[in-house]
Amino acid sequence: MSPTSAHPLCVEATLDPRLTRWKWLVKWILAFPHYIALLVLWIVFLLLSIVAFFSILITGRYPRPLFDFNVGVLRWNTRVNYYASAVLGTDKYPPFTLKDVPDYPIRVDVTYPKRLSRGLVLVKWLLVIPQLLVIAVLTTSGSSAYRHLEQYSPLGSGLIGLLSLVAVVILMFTGSYPRGLFDLLVGLLRWTLRVLVYAYLMTDKYPPFRLDMGGSEPMAAATQSAGGG
Questions:
Q1: Rounded to an integer, what distance in angstroms lies between the CA atom of residue 25 and that of residue 44?
Q2: What is the pTM for the complete model shown?
Q3: CA distance linking residue 133 with residue 170, whole number of Å
Q4: Tens digit of pLDDT for each residue in 120-137?
Q5: Which of 118, 153, 119, 123 is closest to 136 using CA atoms?
Q6: For 138-149, what is each residue's pLDDT tens digit?
Q7: Fewer beta carbons under 10 A from the terminal one: N or C of the chain?
């Protein structure tokens, strides 16, 4: 997937048109094998991020193999969250892979930065604090946002979890997932991921204080609209 957004992070999501009314009640159990795998993957992610920190500081480059692996962890984690906790927008079981899966309902990609600022890498943790305050509201119950960045958006915690619960309760009673809530939740998830890739040194582009709602990236949607006209 080639990101078409102005931001290096690209998130494309599609709402499953045939969501079952009840399956969301057990998805967190079905996803348990993924949680075990992700526990290991996030440990590796954090270790590689430390290596990347020193590489950027010395050379101004994020080693490409490390970058690709960490993007893969983000993909995997996002697919599991999309299925079992945040948004709950599909009944399609997430695959066990770091690779992009073109036919999965949510896809994540990050443009590889050829050069990164060696000075900025020293202060990103400080610059990202205002964004982390936002993420604390979106994905946690108000405790340390740094502590929850590894596994963002747990159901039942934070605004994303609450809105996801509202959406699936409506689904249970009506058989329909509210489209407005879907667009809002994907926008909140996109915001969270933008902060995540900045905090973990994968881009120098500061995440905007802006909610880009909907399943398509803003620039991608605009391009499609212009082409269709």
A1: 30
A2: 0.86
A3: 29
A4: 999 999 999 999 888 887
A5: 153
A6: 776 444 334 444
A7: C
